């Protein structure tokens, strides 16, 4: 089947879907599935904008609300993970995943689903060491700290994913796995993004948690976004035993969703021709959720996951075939995810803007139903209980709380001694938040919708590529001569005209390199939210 993969969407759903429709009209290529690697921005109303961690001047409604209201429907099944620029209050309603709109499914903090027999996993957010060992304690209304920490990856999600034994076909993360740049054309990457050099050379660019998952899961494909540059790599995994077959991962990072950028990729994935067209639960993942349910934490206290160190009676939470069979029996062998989308918030009305709408902590019926069905803890319900009991650890507070030490207590040091989320401090292609709070006010937002006039796709069709059957990428700088060879190998047809292909292959991430000498902290990725692409 054909799978379309997109980078940072930033709420531009109309552009994504119109581009896919153009692909079908011009080249008779229709993807069966669309995957989005974070910064999806499922913003329903003005209150959601207040919960999005971007400077106030970038808070625009965009077009998701039209799909949420039912005015429009996604033309292709869409599965996405969260990034670091999201309506966190909305996604928080679905910690185990669920529908944010008809035909648009969120994977949750971490999740695994199946479509046509293809196993798809993902983890939302970005890595920050000082929040990694905390529980999911945040809830709206957020303060200056929690609006950021709400999207930080937690060790419990990584721990759950590491319990999986069955092969993963596709995995998504927002930030890149650390060290993945050593397995692709690193020289070309640094030519396009010279400000990554220090972190690449010190091996601090990317997420160590994602790197750990990559080495454990060894998926056939791994897709990421976040850094707003297209980059491919090929990682051959080491075998743990002589009997284990060699495994390799084809990694691809996608650019942001803008005209003239390579933000969409089409790949062919082997699937089960006898499988249905519905999105399905993954039985092993459900069994893992049940097995690890006792580890759910909704406090700010830092703690380590169980490990074989003599301090824990149990450290292996992987599941048996019997446990998986029990899940199947509970579902009567019907793994189809119910289409139980429900409106849980008022939808934005352009004719009646409500700039003072406040976010509230909501219990989503989808999560309630899911937890009841599988005997799981409803994280948001637990947070509400802690709030009502006056527990300071799980409480949503307006006032800022004292920051905890990033390494935790002396008895329980952090698993990672860095605080790098995979985003260069000087990446002019990414929105930056002032860590000191600056002049940004969470109480302000812009609700002006993006222009209703669709972009001229006939002049920006380099946004789509069809990936070749093979992504043979040599490690490190063996590909110094040409990054183009990666995309031309395998004889796969391209969806652009030749001139457009050559142009886009050469520029992949735009012309940032020419401006890399000027690094202004206050001048960030304005093009994400602007109607016009600054990279022209």
From TrEMBL:
Composition skew (Acidic residues), residue ranges: 396-405, 431-442
Keywords assigned: Hydrolase, Iron, Manganese, Metal-binding, mRNA processing, Nucleus, Zinc
Keyword Hydrolase: yes
Boundaries of every Lariat debranching enzyme C-terminal domain copy: 235-380
Subcellular location: Nucleus
Keyword Nucleus annotated: yes
Biological process terms in GO annotation: mRNA splicing, via spliceosome
Cofactor(s), by name: Zn(2+); Fe(2+); Mn(2+)
Biased composition, class Polar residues, residue ranges: 415-427
GO cellular component, one term: nucleus
UniProt-annotated stretches for the region Disordered: 386-536
Molecular function per GO: metal ion binding; RNA lariat debranching enzyme activity
SUPFAM superfamilies in UniProt: Metallo-dependent phosphatases
SMART domains associated with the record: DBR1
Signal peptide from the UniProt entry: none
Bias type Basic and acidic residues, positions: 386-395, 485-510
Entries under InterPro entries matching the protein: Calcineurin-like_PHP, DBR1_C, Dbr1_N, Metallo-depent_PP-like
Family membership noted in the UniProt record: Belongs to the lariat debranching enzyme family.
UniProt protein name: DBR1 enzyme
Organism: Lanius ludovicianus
């Amino acid at each position: 089947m054909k799978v379309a993969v997109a980078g940072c969407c930033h709420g531009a759903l109309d552009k994504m879907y119109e581009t896919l429709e153009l692909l079908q009209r011009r080249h008779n290529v229709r993807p069966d599935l669309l995957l989005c690697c974070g910064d999806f921005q499922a913003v329903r109303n003005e209150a959601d904008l207040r919960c999005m961690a971007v400077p106030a001047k970038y808070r625009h409604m965009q077009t998701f609300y039209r799909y949420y209201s039912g005015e429009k429907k996604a033309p292709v099944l869409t599965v996405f993970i969260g990034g670091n620029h999201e309506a966190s209050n909305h996604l928080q309603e679905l910690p185990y995943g669920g529908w944010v709109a008809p035909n648009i499914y969120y994977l949750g903090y971490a999740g695994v689903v199946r479509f046509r027999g293809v196993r798809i996993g993902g983890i939302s957010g970005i890595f920050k060491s000082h929040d990694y060992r905390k529980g999911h304690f945040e809830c709206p209304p957020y303060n200056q700290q929690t609006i950021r920490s709400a999207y930080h990856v937690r060790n419990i999600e990584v721990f759950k994913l590491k319990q999986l034994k069955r092969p993963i076909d596709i995995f998504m993360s927002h930030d890149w796995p650390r060290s993945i740049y050593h397995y692709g054309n690193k020289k070309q990457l640094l030519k396009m993004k010279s400000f990554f050099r220090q972190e690449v050379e010190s091996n601090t660019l990317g997420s160590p948690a994602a790197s750990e998952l990559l080495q454990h899961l060894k998926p056939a494909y791994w897709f990421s976004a976040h850094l707003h540059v297209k980059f491919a790599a090929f990682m051959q995994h080491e075998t743990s035993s002589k009997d284990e077959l060699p495994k390799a991962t084809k990694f691809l990072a996608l650019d942001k969703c803008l005209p003239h950028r390579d933000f969409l990729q089409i790949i062919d994935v082997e699937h089960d021709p006898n499988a249905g067209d519905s999105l399905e639960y993954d039985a092993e993942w459900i069994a893992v959720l049940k097995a690890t349910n006792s580890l759910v934490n909704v406090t700010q206290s830092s703690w380590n996951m169980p490990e074989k160190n003599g301090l824990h009676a149990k450290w292996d939470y992987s599941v048996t075939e019997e446990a998986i069979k029990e899940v199947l029996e509970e579902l009567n062998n019907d793994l189809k995810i119910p289409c139980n989308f429900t409106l849980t918030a008022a939808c934005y009305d352009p004719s009646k803007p409500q700039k003072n709408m406040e976010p509230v902590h909501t219990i989503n019926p989808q999560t309630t139903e899911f937890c009841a069905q599988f005997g799981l803890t409803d994280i948001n319900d637990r947070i509400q209980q802690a709030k009502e009991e006056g527990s300071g650890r799980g409480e949503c507070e307006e006032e800022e709380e004292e920051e905890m030490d990033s390494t935790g207590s002396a008895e329980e040091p952090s698993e990672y001694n860095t605080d790098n989320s995979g985003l260069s401090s000087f990446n002019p292609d990414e929105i930056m938040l002032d860590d000191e709070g600056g002049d940004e006010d969470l109480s302000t937002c812009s609700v002006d919708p993006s222009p209703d006039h669709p972009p001229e796709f006939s002049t920006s069709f380099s946004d789509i590529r069809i990936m070749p059957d093979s992504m043979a990428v040599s490690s490190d700088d063996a590909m110094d001569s040409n990054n183009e060879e990666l995309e031309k190998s395998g004889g796969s047809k391209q969806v652009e005209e030749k001139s457009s292909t050559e142009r886009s292959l050469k520029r992949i991430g735009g012309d940032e390199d020419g401006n890399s000498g000027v690094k202004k902290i206050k001048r960030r990725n304005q093009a994400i939210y602007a109607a016009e692409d600054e990279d022209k």
